[in-house]
Design goal:
Elements (H helix, E strand, L loop, with lengths): L9 H54 L6 E4 L5 E4 L5 E3 L11 H12 L6 E3 L9 E5 L3 E6 L6 E5 L12 E5 L4
Parallel strand pairs: 4-5
Antiparallel strand pairs: 1-2, 2-3, 5-6, 6-7, 7-8
């Protein structure tokens, strides 16, 4: 009487391992791509929030009948300084954004997004690793996403910068390449 053996032969086991390896090799790039897509979505979401907040602040400036630079108080009590054309320029008393005023861009982000926005810090210093680094230009604030510095959000308070087609424009670069 022969005992019948149960189990896999060595060849069957090797074939299963090879098939699993092939499946893993084809699926891995897809999972890596999901990280880029998630980061891109985070930047687009933050950029959309900034764009909406800018438009709401401008609408409030217009509704109050302002025709010159003025501070406005948002619904939550936050004060935003507006430029002469009615676009956000920073915190209390701010009337323009100038190159080298990174802290002003940090304040603008925090005031527009209140406590709900992602972390932001001075792009010339040490910005938060999971947030944005703010750098000011002539009439602009550029917020660079720190987990992937190829992605950014640029807010144009004026048309002084070549990337700005109109004042109040928010340009979102969510392409990780």
């Amino acid at each position: 009487m022969h005992k019948q053996q149960n189990g896999f032969t060595l060849i069957e086991l090797v074939i299963v391992i090879v098939i699993l390896g092939i499946l893993a090799a084809t699926a891995l790039p897809r999972f890596i791509d999901v990280t880029d897509e998630a980061r891109s979505a985070a930047v687009e979401g933050s950029g959309g929030a900034v764009g909406s907040a800018v438009q709401l602040a401008h609408a409030q400036w217009v509704a109050q009948g302002n025709t010159a630079a003025a501070d406005i108080t948002l619904e939550d009590g936050t004060v935003v300084g507006m430029n002469a054309d009615g676009w956000p320029a920073g915190g209390t008393g701010a009337t323009s954004i100038s190159a080298g005023s990174n802290g002003q861009c940090v304040t603008l982000w925090q005031n527009l997004l209140s406590s709900n926005g992602p972390a932001v810090g001075d792009g010339g210093g040490t910005p938060p690793a999971d947030g944005y680094g703010a750098v000011s230009g002539d009439g602009t604030c550029t917020y660079t996403y720190q987990p992937d510095t190829n992605m950014s959000i640029q807010y144009c308070a004026t048309t002084a910068d070549a990337n700005c087609d109109s004042a109040g424009q928010v340009v979102i670069d969510s392409d990780p390449t």
